[in-house]
Specification:
Shape: globular
Helix content: over 70%
Strand order of the largest sheet: 1-2
Largest sheet: 2 strands, antiparallel
Structural class: mainly alpha
Order of helices and strands: HHHHHEHHHHEHH
Number of helices: 11
CATH topology: A middle domain of Talin 1
Strand content: under 5%
CATH superfamily: NCX, central ion-binding region
Number of strands: 2
CATH class: Mainly Alpha
Distance between the termini: 27 Å
CATH architecture: Up-down Bundle
Length: 306
């Protein structure tokens, strides 16, 4: 049932991304902006619905673990693929500001989580950061000339892609329900904590859309789209989704000691390794990918053995 849930979620995300790509074609919006907004939000839809459903059902360990684990997986797998196989120079200001937003939001969550919970005030602050992030994307969207010609469309095409969007959402919701329920059953049957399940299998399952999108972008040599997707997804996860599940849980969300002492610091470390060298030297280095890949393997081994 977990595998079936992942399949529904992946196909739903694929249709969602396909509709987003069509939107890029007909609007002429740049790949960097599309990657950081529409594509990032689309590929983060599984994390959103899985975490919301898990929180509603009272499985807070799965919901929190899924968000933090997905951010770690995005950089520990997705960014590794980019850095190792497609290192490149970064020249646009949008990537700079998105990197700053990711670092600041990650540091804020890690600092406040040491109180043992995600409070309503932190959730509100994260929503403000998310609004700032969206505002930055809109600003650069207005300032930047279209990087591709707008393609004409028609009513039939609009209806078709609207249907893809709806089918994608339905698939993601249905698949997310299966993932949450089956993950909880697995936790009970083999005796592992919920948050470990959320950090590993659930996180990897919901990160597959980002990883698949990254692989496709690498083959197409779409540098900006691939990195924009990963950074945008991580910002979306840690600001909008984390704030949303805090509100859904009643205003506060408990944070385990392992999340405080290990998971959030690792997520912060991964963000630093992924974006700080790029901010300083204006390029993505192959060494960044190798370091992150080794650390991700070490992290997975650590949480599965403690």
């Amino acid at each position: 049932m977990f595998s079936l849930g992942v399949a529904f979620t992946l196909y739903g995300a694929e249709y969602f991304v396909r509709a987003s790509s069509w939107l890029s074609d007909v609007t002429g919006i740049s790949k960097a902006i599309m990657g950081a907004t529409v594509v990032a939000f689309s590929t983060s839809a599984p994390e959103l619905f899985v975490s919301m459903i898990a929180t509603i059902k009272g499985y807070n360990g799965i919901s929190m673990g899924n968000i933090v684990g997905s951010n770690i997986c995005n950089l520990g797998v997705g960014f590794v693929i980019i850095a190792v196989f497609l290192p490149y120079f970064v020249r646009d200001k949008l990537s700079f500001w998105n990197a700053i937003i990711l670092l600041f939001s990650s540091l804020l969550v890690m600092a406040f989580a040491f109180a043992g919970e995600i409070s309503i005030w932190l959730a509100l602050a994260l929503l403000v950061i998310f609004i700032v992030f969206v505002g930055v994307q809109i600003k650069y969207c207005k300032d930047e000339r279209p990087t591709q010609l707008r393609r004409k469309t028609n009513t039939r095409e609009i209806l078709w892609h609207t249907m893809l969007f709806v089918v994608g959402i339905v698939g993601i919701i249905f698949g997310s329900n299966l993932i949450v329920d089956s993950a909880k059953t697995v936790c009970i049957s083999i005796g592992i904590p919920e948050h470990i399940m959320g950090l590993t299998i659930v996180a990897v399952g919901t990160s597959l859309p980002e990883i698949f999108t990254t692989i496709v972008a690498v083959f197409k040599r779409e540098h900006a789209m691939s990195v924009g997707n990963l950074i945008g997804s991580n910002i979306f996860n840690i600001t909008f989704i984390l704030a949303t599940i805090a509100f859904v849980s009643g205003g506060t969300l408990a944070v385990t000691r392992q999340t405080m002492m290990l998971d959030l610091p690792v997520a912060m470390l991964f963000a630093v390794i992924a974006v700080v060298p790029t901010l300083i030297w204006k390029r993505v280095f192959r060494a960044q990918g190798i370091i992150l890949g080794v650390l991700y393997v070490a992290y997975i081994i650590t949480i599965c053995t403690i």
